[in-house]
Amino acid sequence: MLEADARTKQDGGGLTELVYELLDAHTDTIALTEQQAASPVWAAHLDYIRDLQRVGRERLARLG
To answer: How far apart are CA 30 and CA 43, in angstroms?
Structure first.
């Protein structure tokens, strides 16, 4: 669990942790809703989340 108060962090590493946490939350959302994705609109949104996650992880990997 991440701390909500970013002032406790002295370096910029907290932002990277937050982004990874958000990406993991997207993964959890996809897993929880894939079986319920009967709607084409919802299925398209899940595809969008997957794409955001992939691009986010690729960009973070280039930073590290």
So the answer is: 10
- The angle that helices 13-33 and 40-63 make with each other, rounded to 10 degrees, is 150
pTM (2 d.p.): 0.57
Report how far residue 15's alpha carbon sits from residue 30's, in angstroms, rounded to the nearest whole number. Answer: 23
Q: What is the pLDDT of residues 18-62, one digit of tens each?
A: 888 888 888 888 887 776 667 787 888 888 888 888 888 898 888
Q: What single DSSP character describes residue 5?
A: -
DSSP 6: G
